[in-house]
Amino acid sequence: MHLLDQGDGTRNTVAVRKAVSVSESVKTLARGLDILRSFRADRPEATQSEIAAALGLPLPTVGRLCRTLVAEGFLEADTGSRRLRLGPEISRMALLGPRDPVAIGRIWMADLAERFGEDVNLAVLNGTQVLFVDSLASGRTLSATTAIGTRAPAHCTAVGKCLLAQLDDNVALDRLGTGPYERRTGKSLTSWSRLRPELDSIRATQVARSFEEYEEGLVGLAVALRRDGNGQIYGLSVAVPSVRAKPDIVAAIEDALRADPRAVPARGGTA
Description:
The chain is built from nine helices and nine strands. By secondary structure, the protein is of the alpha+beta class. Strands 3, 4, 5, 6, 7, 8 and 9 form a seven-stranded antiparallel beta sheet that branches. A two-stranded antiparallel sheet has the order 1-2.
Protein backbone atom coordinates (compact mmCIF):
# COMPACT_ATOMS: atom_id res chain seq x y z
CA MET A 1 0.00 0.00 0.00
CA HIS A 2 1.31 3.45 -0.88
CA LEU A 3 1.05 6.16 1.82
CA LEU A 4 0.03 9.59 0.62
CA ASP A 5 2.28 12.59 1.31
CA GLN A 6 0.72 16.00 1.91
CA GLY A 7 3.78 17.85 0.59
CA ASP A 8 5.11 18.97 3.95
CA GLY A 9 6.47 15.52 4.75
CA THR A 10 3.48 14.42 6.85
CA ARG A 11 1.45 11.43 5.80
CA ASN A 12 -2.22 11.77 5.06
CA THR A 13 -3.40 9.41 7.78
CA VAL A 14 -7.08 9.99 6.93
CA ALA A 15 -6.56 8.78 3.37
CA VAL A 16 -4.55 5.84 4.63
CA ARG A 17 -7.31 4.84 7.02
CA LYS A 18 -9.88 5.08 4.23
CA ALA A 19 -7.74 2.91 1.95
CA VAL A 20 -7.34 0.33 4.70
CA SER A 21 -11.07 0.41 5.37
CA VAL A 22 -11.87 -0.20 1.69
CA SER A 23 -9.36 -3.05 1.54
CA GLU A 24 -10.85 -4.70 4.62
CA SER A 25 -14.37 -4.29 3.22
CA VAL A 26 -13.36 -6.02 -0.02
CA LYS A 27 -11.78 -8.86 1.95
CA THR A 28 -14.92 -9.23 4.05
CA LEU A 29 -17.10 -9.32 0.94
CA ALA A 30 -14.86 -11.95 -0.66
CA ARG A 31 -15.07 -14.12 2.45
CA GLY A 32 -18.84 -13.80 2.50
CA LEU A 33 -19.01 -14.90 -1.13
CA ASP A 34 -16.72 -17.83 -0.35
CA ILE A 35 -19.16 -18.91 2.34
CA LEU A 36 -22.06 -18.83 -0.12
CA ARG A 37 -20.04 -20.77 -2.70
CA SER A 38 -19.25 -23.46 -0.14
CA PHE A 39 -22.83 -24.74 -0.37
CA ARG A 40 -23.17 -27.36 -3.11
CA ALA A 41 -25.76 -29.78 -4.42
CA ASP A 42 -24.06 -32.62 -2.55
CA ARG A 43 -23.78 -30.51 0.63
CA PRO A 44 -26.76 -28.16 0.80
CA GLU A 45 -26.41 -27.62 4.59
CA ALA A 46 -23.46 -27.02 6.91
CA THR A 47 -22.63 -25.80 10.40
CA GLN A 48 -20.43 -22.81 11.04
CA SER A 49 -17.66 -25.16 12.18
CA GLU A 50 -17.88 -27.15 8.95
CA ILE A 51 -17.72 -23.95 6.89
CA ALA A 52 -14.72 -22.69 8.87
CA ALA A 53 -12.90 -25.98 8.36
CA ALA A 54 -13.70 -26.12 4.64
CA LEU A 55 -12.53 -22.54 3.99
CA GLY A 56 -9.69 -22.41 6.46
CA LEU A 57 -11.15 -19.37 8.25
CA PRO A 58 -11.32 -18.64 11.97
CA LEU A 59 -14.60 -19.76 13.52
CA PRO A 60 -15.34 -16.29 15.02
CA THR A 61 -14.94 -14.73 11.55
CA VAL A 62 -17.28 -17.29 10.01
CA GLY A 63 -19.77 -16.77 12.82
CA ARG A 64 -19.82 -13.00 12.33
CA LEU A 65 -20.22 -13.29 8.54
CA CYS A 66 -22.92 -15.96 8.81
CA ARG A 67 -24.96 -13.84 11.22
CA THR A 68 -24.86 -11.00 8.70
CA LEU A 69 -25.78 -13.29 5.80
CA VAL A 70 -28.70 -14.72 7.79
CA ALA A 71 -29.91 -11.25 8.75
CA GLU A 72 -29.85 -10.20 5.07
CA GLY A 73 -31.62 -13.34 3.86
CA PHE A 74 -28.68 -14.88 1.98
CA LEU A 75 -28.53 -17.76 4.46
CA GLU A 76 -31.13 -19.30 6.73
CA ALA A 77 -30.58 -21.33 9.88
CA ASP A 78 -32.44 -24.39 11.07
CA THR A 79 -33.56 -23.57 14.60
CA GLY A 80 -33.24 -27.16 15.77
CA SER A 81 -29.90 -28.30 14.34
CA ARG A 82 -28.41 -24.82 13.82
CA ARG A 83 -27.32 -25.93 10.36
CA LEU A 84 -27.23 -23.31 7.64
CA ARG A 85 -28.54 -23.39 4.09
CA LEU A 86 -28.88 -20.87 1.26
CA GLY A 87 -31.65 -18.40 2.01
CA PRO A 88 -34.60 -16.89 0.13
CA GLU A 89 -32.58 -13.95 -1.18
CA ILE A 90 -30.46 -16.37 -3.22
CA SER A 91 -33.61 -17.92 -4.69
CA ARG A 92 -35.00 -14.49 -5.55
CA MET A 93 -31.81 -13.45 -7.32
CA ALA A 94 -31.62 -16.75 -9.21
CA LEU A 95 -34.98 -16.01 -10.82
CA LEU A 96 -33.61 -12.77 -12.29
CA GLY A 97 -30.95 -14.43 -14.44
CA PRO A 98 -30.90 -17.20 -17.06
CA ARG A 99 -32.24 -20.50 -15.79
CA ASP A 100 -29.50 -22.94 -14.89
CA PRO A 101 -29.91 -25.92 -17.25
CA VAL A 102 -28.08 -28.23 -14.87
CA ALA A 103 -30.48 -27.34 -12.05
CA ILE A 104 -33.46 -27.73 -14.38
CA GLY A 105 -32.10 -31.04 -15.61
CA ARG A 106 -31.69 -32.28 -12.03
CA ILE A 107 -35.44 -31.93 -11.43
CA TRP A 108 -36.11 -34.30 -14.30
CA MET A 109 -33.18 -36.52 -13.29
CA ALA A 110 -34.65 -36.94 -9.81
CA ASP A 111 -38.01 -37.92 -11.29
CA LEU A 112 -36.46 -40.53 -13.58
CA ALA A 113 -34.25 -41.91 -10.80
CA GLU A 114 -37.25 -42.30 -8.50
CA ARG A 115 -39.46 -43.88 -11.17
CA PHE A 116 -36.97 -46.44 -12.46
CA GLY A 117 -34.43 -46.80 -9.66
CA GLU A 118 -31.47 -46.41 -12.04
CA ASP A 119 -28.54 -44.01 -12.33
CA VAL A 120 -29.30 -40.82 -14.28
CA ASN A 121 -26.63 -38.56 -15.81
CA LEU A 122 -26.36 -35.17 -17.51
CA ALA A 123 -23.55 -34.51 -19.99
CA VAL A 124 -22.31 -32.14 -22.68
CA LEU A 125 -20.34 -32.80 -25.85
CA ASN A 126 -16.68 -31.86 -25.52
CA GLY A 127 -14.62 -32.57 -28.63
CA THR A 128 -14.86 -36.30 -29.36
CA GLN A 129 -15.92 -37.02 -25.78
CA VAL A 130 -18.81 -36.34 -23.44
CA LEU A 131 -18.26 -34.60 -20.12
CA PHE A 132 -20.60 -35.59 -17.31
CA VAL A 133 -21.72 -32.45 -15.44
CA ASP A 134 -24.25 -34.00 -13.07
CA SER A 135 -25.19 -37.45 -11.85
CA LEU A 136 -27.75 -39.06 -9.56
CA ALA A 137 -26.87 -42.52 -8.26
CA SER A 138 -29.59 -45.07 -7.72
CA GLY A 139 -28.02 -46.40 -4.54
CA ARG A 140 -28.64 -49.98 -5.65
CA THR A 141 -25.95 -52.59 -5.09
CA LEU A 142 -25.63 -53.22 -8.83
CA SER A 143 -25.42 -49.81 -10.49
CA ALA A 144 -23.32 -47.78 -12.92
CA THR A 145 -22.43 -44.70 -10.91
CA THR A 146 -20.65 -42.00 -12.92
CA ALA A 147 -18.63 -39.34 -11.12
CA ILE A 148 -19.14 -35.71 -12.11
CA GLY A 149 -16.24 -34.66 -14.33
CA THR A 150 -15.89 -38.10 -15.93
CA ARG A 151 -15.20 -38.13 -19.68
CA ALA A 152 -16.18 -40.90 -22.08
CA PRO A 153 -16.03 -41.42 -25.86
CA ALA A 154 -19.05 -39.91 -27.58
CA HIS A 155 -19.29 -42.53 -30.33
CA CYS A 156 -20.09 -45.46 -28.02
CA THR A 157 -22.19 -43.89 -25.26
CA ALA A 158 -25.91 -43.24 -25.53
CA VAL A 159 -25.58 -39.67 -24.27
CA GLY A 160 -22.72 -39.04 -26.69
CA LYS A 161 -24.63 -40.36 -29.67
CA CYS A 162 -27.74 -38.35 -28.85
CA LEU A 163 -25.59 -35.20 -28.82
CA LEU A 164 -23.76 -36.15 -32.03
CA ALA A 165 -27.16 -36.64 -33.67
CA GLN A 166 -27.87 -32.95 -33.02
CA LEU A 167 -25.02 -32.04 -35.37
CA ASP A 168 -25.09 -31.99 -39.14
CA ASP A 169 -23.27 -35.00 -40.57
CA ASN A 170 -20.44 -32.93 -41.99
CA VAL A 171 -19.88 -31.29 -38.58
CA ALA A 172 -19.94 -34.63 -36.74
CA LEU A 173 -17.60 -36.20 -39.31
CA ASP A 174 -15.19 -33.29 -39.04
CA ARG A 175 -15.22 -33.71 -35.28
CA LEU A 176 -14.77 -37.49 -35.17
CA GLY A 177 -12.99 -38.32 -38.39
CA THR A 178 -13.68 -41.49 -40.38
CA GLY A 179 -12.14 -43.77 -37.76
CA PRO A 180 -11.10 -46.12 -36.48
CA TYR A 181 -12.57 -45.03 -33.14
CA GLU A 182 -11.75 -46.54 -29.79
CA ARG A 183 -13.13 -50.06 -29.40
CA ARG A 184 -14.40 -50.27 -25.83
CA THR A 185 -16.22 -53.58 -26.33
CA GLY A 186 -16.94 -55.93 -29.19
CA LYS A 187 -20.15 -53.96 -29.84
CA SER A 188 -18.54 -50.51 -30.16
CA LEU A 189 -19.13 -48.69 -33.46
CA THR A 190 -15.59 -47.91 -34.56
CA SER A 191 -16.05 -46.13 -37.90
CA TRP A 192 -18.09 -43.32 -39.41
CA SER A 193 -19.64 -45.72 -41.91
CA ARG A 194 -21.11 -47.71 -39.00
CA LEU A 195 -21.94 -44.72 -36.78
CA ARG A 196 -23.77 -42.57 -39.34
CA PRO A 197 -26.75 -44.94 -39.79
CA GLU A 198 -27.03 -45.05 -35.99
CA LEU A 199 -27.25 -41.24 -35.86
CA ASP A 200 -29.98 -41.33 -38.52
CA SER A 201 -31.89 -43.83 -36.38
CA ILE A 202 -31.58 -41.56 -33.35
CA ARG A 203 -32.91 -38.63 -35.38
CA ALA A 204 -35.91 -40.75 -36.34
CA THR A 205 -36.69 -42.17 -32.89
CA GLN A 206 -35.37 -39.30 -30.70
CA VAL A 207 -33.79 -41.73 -28.23
CA ALA A 208 -30.17 -42.87 -28.40
CA ARG A 209 -29.19 -46.34 -27.20
CA SER A 210 -25.97 -48.02 -26.23
CA PHE A 211 -26.30 -51.74 -25.65
CA GLU A 212 -22.95 -52.69 -24.12
CA GLU A 213 -21.06 -50.50 -26.61
CA TYR A 214 -19.23 -48.56 -23.89
CA GLU A 215 -19.01 -51.20 -21.19
CA GLU A 216 -20.04 -54.83 -21.07
CA GLY A 217 -23.05 -55.33 -18.88
CA LEU A 218 -24.28 -51.74 -19.27
CA VAL A 219 -27.16 -50.31 -21.29
CA GLY A 220 -27.59 -46.56 -21.82
CA LEU A 221 -30.66 -44.64 -23.04
CA ALA A 222 -30.49 -40.90 -23.71
CA VAL A 223 -32.16 -37.84 -25.21
CA ALA A 224 -31.03 -34.29 -25.87
CA LEU A 225 -32.49 -31.37 -23.90
CA ARG A 226 -33.43 -27.99 -25.28
CA ARG A 227 -30.61 -25.50 -25.77
CA ASP A 228 -29.88 -23.19 -22.87
CA GLY A 229 -29.48 -19.42 -23.18
CA ASN A 230 -25.90 -19.86 -24.38
CA GLY A 231 -26.84 -22.35 -27.10
CA GLN A 232 -25.46 -25.32 -25.16
CA ILE A 233 -27.17 -28.69 -25.65
CA TYR A 234 -27.23 -31.18 -22.78
CA GLY A 235 -27.78 -34.90 -23.00
CA LEU A 236 -29.71 -36.80 -20.33
CA SER A 237 -29.12 -40.52 -19.95
CA VAL A 238 -30.36 -43.42 -17.87
CA ALA A 239 -27.82 -46.19 -17.21
CA VAL A 240 -29.21 -49.68 -16.65
CA PRO A 241 -27.28 -52.88 -15.89
CA SER A 242 -27.94 -55.35 -18.70
CA VAL A 243 -29.45 -57.89 -16.32
CA ARG A 244 -32.25 -55.40 -15.55
CA ALA A 245 -32.63 -54.04 -19.09
CA LYS A 246 -35.64 -56.15 -20.01
CA PRO A 247 -37.57 -55.05 -23.13
CA ASP A 248 -40.49 -53.65 -21.13
CA ILE A 249 -38.16 -51.66 -18.85
CA VAL A 250 -36.23 -50.25 -21.82
CA ALA A 251 -39.47 -49.30 -23.57
CA ALA A 252 -40.84 -47.59 -20.45
CA ILE A 253 -37.65 -45.55 -19.98
CA GLU A 254 -37.60 -44.55 -23.65
CA ASP A 255 -41.24 -43.43 -23.45
CA ALA A 256 -40.48 -41.38 -20.33
CA LEU A 257 -37.50 -39.72 -22.02
CA ARG A 258 -39.51 -38.81 -25.10
CA ALA A 259 -42.55 -37.59 -23.16
CA ASP A 260 -40.98 -34.70 -21.30
CA PRO A 261 -41.30 -31.38 -23.19
CA ARG A 262 -37.67 -30.54 -22.37
CA ALA A 263 -36.53 -33.33 -24.67
CA VAL A 264 -36.07 -32.28 -28.29
CA PRO A 265 -35.83 -34.27 -31.49
CA ALA A 266 -32.33 -34.33 -32.97
CA ARG A 267 -31.85 -31.72 -35.66
CA GLY A 268 -28.73 -32.89 -37.41
CA GLY A 269 -28.47 -34.82 -40.65
CA THR A 270 -27.09 -34.19 -44.07
CA ALA A 271 -26.22 -30.53 -44.50
